[in-house]
Task: inverse folding
């Protein structure tokens, strides 16, 4: 029986009459790839915000491994091994790709407070940042300011920042959103190449990605978990089809190869 | 793979932060007043002091994105501390400097808990409010501060027990310039350290910082305390070299002036505050016959012009020029 | 007559004045997040327009008030067209500095044209003196001020709640992106709201002369108070501005009367404490 990497118990959150999370219970076993799908406004990003601490739940618990992290601030949760990416790029425009990842690495290693040693002296951190960027095919542009990178490269940098935290659980918020076809190859390779040690939950609308990478799918509708199962089960579920109303789904019998 | 991959980025980073020729020339140029313009040494020491103050504001504004309309509070606090120390009998300059920096730094540390929690308008208002509060308090506590008459009876002992502070300003300028240079070296180190990188991260995207595990509030408190201490140093220098302290040392005018200087020179570039201070003070000296209202008319126009035409200040404009020249065949 | 009542009444009147001066800034800040520190320059303009029309052209006081309103609105339209428009996406710092520059220019301009002395203003006889009602003294001018401010508040609130324009303003303040998505021309809306708010400031400036005086430093001194009202009340909220203006008006007058030693400091302390309790202001949202 695999250990639970991330669990949410009885999560509730509402803004006045708008309910974004209602009695959400999920358990992610370690190393499994989960996809979180649902129509717009279902509360998917809100769930990630609740789990990462950017939103405070009205009720419920969040557990990372065995630890209750409900009361922890966002940065403390990150230090315990929970990382996320943002649906809309949230990067550092004037910092280079290398500087951005180095910053994340330095924060993780706790050296970000030292002001008396120059950056080039931190060889371990530089190497680590460079390796992360290399694994995501960003090494050649590591010295370019973030705002000069192509959109697909920026999405990869989002993931690089999250990976720099050496997370045990990684939450990806629509990683492929807005990425044009010709730039998505590296992105897909990056997601496929994620270490099996990391438990991944990703929000996606692109069903092709869901079928390619997820071994289990959670369907969220109106702040509630409607159903959970394998991608095949979900695709065949009549309720899910009804909710999506004609949304194109990738057919599980014939995976597409680009 | 290991050695090949490392050489690139590390060397590149080292190259980014090495001393440029322009910088070395700049610091040699600061020695010129001794030879070329000895009658202006008093003005030069004023410029050095103001430049130090501008540098302290750049640390929080240019590098961390904290807009403060009340930074003069720490300058004035340093000024009054050094002045009072001297008035009460201890006129040794270096120790007075340190004590003043400590006092200003302590006040900065305490207020940083409030300041770190705010952004945008609320932050501007809090810093403005704190500055005005201190100004009013200093005005009311005239038994301590001398009120609008200012502090009397300050006498600074000779520096290092040998160099007297004379009317010509030799000692004053050497003293101020030395302190400026030493602090500058420290600031330069800080900017190029991991902490400096974290500050820039806060400036670029404060929201993202917690998501990479950064204790943003803690970082802000640290830099705010450091900036307050440096401002206090500058204030103490002013008190010691001019042997006077008045309410305008912590007034809104001073906070606004230093902001103008920093924008003029260019924020976030370390040298911006220094150059802006020099340009502003020299211009003010040249136009000193002008009615103060007219001066603020031209400063107002200058502000509008700089923000509209040259948002990154003089240094920003220069770097734009050099980049264009490099790009043109 | 118990001094408490007098202080309270004066505080309310002062608060009403602060409200008139602040409401425009609160709404435009809430809508476009444009930090316009030159707001009180429009107020000062209104004051000088009234004074000039009365003293140099012999106009009756009440007739100058609409002109002060129009002057404030017109000046803002001009500045918005020429300058402000380009800075809506700029950083807080740039907007601050741009508008501080305008404040400096306006103060210097006023000093150049009118000198630095207080401007004399002769109120018409029916606005001078005081009324006695139920044993309490009410200064007529302050009553007049309160009446006008309440009237304007009612107009503003009904306008906001009952007209289409008001609904658009509320939508844009609430969520600019969504408002745009609904087809609302946010730029035109903002220009109109900005003009209205600046007009109100001009009117406030004209009314302020007889109560607190007028000299070139007005644009700066009252800017501080207005900023305090706006940040404490919450951006984009008329109710917030009203509540904050009352609170600050009364505590400022009360502070200066009862504890003169710290009286002038009280208003800053109140602001800092309130902002710490509610960083987005009493009625603010972010």
Result:
């Amino acid at each position: 029986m695999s250990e639970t990497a991330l669990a949410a118990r009885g999560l509730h959150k509402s803004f006045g009459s708008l309910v974004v999370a209602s009695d959400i219970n999920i358990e992610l076993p370690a190393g499994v790839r989960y996809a979180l799908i649902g129509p717009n406004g279902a509360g998917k990003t809100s769930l990630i915000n609740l789990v990462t601490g950017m939103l405070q739940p009205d009720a419920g618990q969040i557990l990372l491994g065995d630890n209750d992290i409900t009361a922890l601030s966002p940065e403390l949760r990150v230090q315990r091994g929970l990382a996320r990416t943002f649906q809309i790029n949230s990067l550092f425009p004037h910092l280079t790709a290398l500087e951005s990842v180095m910053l994340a690495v330095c924060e993780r290693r706790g050296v970000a407070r030292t002001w008396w040693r120059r950056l080039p002296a931190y060889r371990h951190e530089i190497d680590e940042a460079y390796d992360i960027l290399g694994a995501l095919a960003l090494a050649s542009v590591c010295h370019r300011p973030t705002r000069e990178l192509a959109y697909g490269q920026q999405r990869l940098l989002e993931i690089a920042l999250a990976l720099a935290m050496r997370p045990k659980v990684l939450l990806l918020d629509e990683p492929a959103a807005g990425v044009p076809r010709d730039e998505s190859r590296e992105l897909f390779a990056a997601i496929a190449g994620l270490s099996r040690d990391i438990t991944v939950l990703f929000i996606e609308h692109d069903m092709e990605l869901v079928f390619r990478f997820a071994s289990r799918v959670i369907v969220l509708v109106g702040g509630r978990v409607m159903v959970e199962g394998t991608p095949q089960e979900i695709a065949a579920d009549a309720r899910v089809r009804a909710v999506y109303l004609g949304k194109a789904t990738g057919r599980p019998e014939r995976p597409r190869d680009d | 793979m290991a050695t090949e991959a490392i050489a690139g980025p590390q060397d590149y980073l080292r190259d980014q932060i090495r001393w440029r020729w322009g910088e070395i020339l700049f610091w040699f140029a600061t020695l010129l007043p001794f030879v070329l313009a000895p009658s202006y040494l008093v003005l030069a020491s004023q410029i050095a002091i103001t430049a130090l103050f501008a540098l302290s504001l750049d640390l929080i504004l240019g590098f961390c994105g904290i807009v403060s309309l009340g930074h003069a509070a720490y300058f004035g606090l340093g000024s009054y501390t050094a002045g009072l120390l001297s008035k009460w009998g201890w006129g040794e300059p270096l120790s007075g400097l340190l004590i003043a920096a400590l006092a200003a730094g302590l006040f900065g540390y305490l207020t940083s808990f409030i300041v770190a929690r705010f952004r945008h308008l609320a932050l501007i208002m809090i810093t403005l409010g704190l500055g005005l509060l201190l100004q009013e308090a200093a005005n009311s506590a005239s038994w301590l501060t001398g009120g609008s008459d200012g502090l009397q009876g300050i006498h600074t002992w000779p520096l290092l027990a040998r160099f007297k502070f004379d009317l010509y300003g030799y000692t004053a300028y050497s003293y101020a310039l030395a302190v400026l240079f030493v602090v500058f070296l420290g600031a330069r180190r800080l900017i190029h350290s991991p902490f400096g990188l974290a500050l820039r991260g806060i400036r670029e995207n404060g929201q993202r910082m917690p998501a990479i595990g950064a204790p943003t509030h803690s970082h802000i408190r640290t830099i705010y305390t450091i900036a307050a201490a440096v401002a206090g140093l500058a204030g103490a220098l002013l008190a010691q070299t001019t042997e006077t302290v008045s309410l305008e040392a912590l007034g809104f005018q001073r906070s606004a002036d230093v902001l103008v200087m920093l924008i003029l020179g260019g924020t976030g570039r370390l040298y911006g505050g220094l150059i802006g201070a020099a340009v502003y003070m020299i211009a003010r000296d040249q136009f000193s016959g002008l009615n103060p209202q007219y001066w603020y008319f031209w400063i107002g126009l200058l502000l509008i012009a700089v923000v509209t035409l040259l948002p990154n200040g003089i240094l920003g404009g220069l770097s734009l020029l050099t980049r264009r020249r490099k790009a043109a065949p | 007559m118990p001094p408490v009542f007098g202080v309270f009444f004066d505080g309310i009147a002062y608060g009403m004045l602060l409200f008139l001066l602040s409401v425009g800034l609160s709404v435009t800040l809430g809508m476009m997040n444009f930090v316009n520190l030159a707001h009180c320059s429009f107020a000062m303009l209104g004051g000088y327009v009234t004074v000039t029309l009365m003293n140099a052209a012999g106009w009756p006081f009440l007739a100058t008030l609409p002109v002060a309103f129009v002057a404030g609105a017109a000046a803002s339209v001009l500045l918005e067209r020429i300058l402000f428009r380009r800075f809506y996406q700029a950083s807080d710092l740039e907007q601050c500095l741009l508008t501080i520059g305008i404040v400096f220019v306006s103060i210097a301009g006023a000093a150049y044209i009118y000198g630095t002395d207080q401007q004399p203003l002769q109120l018409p006889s029916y606005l001078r003196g005081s009324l006695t009602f139920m044993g309490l003294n009410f200064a007529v001018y302050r009553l007049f001020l309160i009446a006008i401010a309440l009237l304007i508040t009612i107009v503003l609130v009904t306008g906001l709640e009952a007209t289409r324009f008001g609904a658009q303003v509320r939508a844009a303040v609430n969520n600019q992106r969504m408002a745009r998505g609904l087809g609302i021309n946010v730029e035109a809306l903002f220009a109109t709201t900005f003009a209205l708010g600046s007009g109100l400031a001009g009117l406030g400036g004209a009314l302020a002369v007889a109560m607190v005086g007028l000299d070139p430093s007005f644009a700066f001194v009252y800017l501080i108070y207005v900023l305090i009202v706006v940040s404490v009340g919450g951006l984009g909220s008329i109710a917030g501005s009203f509540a904050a203006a009352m609170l600050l008006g009364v505590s400022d007058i009360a502070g200066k009367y009862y504890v003169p030693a710290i009286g002038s400091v009280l208003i800053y302390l109140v602001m800092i404490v309130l902002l710490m309790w509610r960083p987005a202001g009493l009625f603010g949202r972010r």
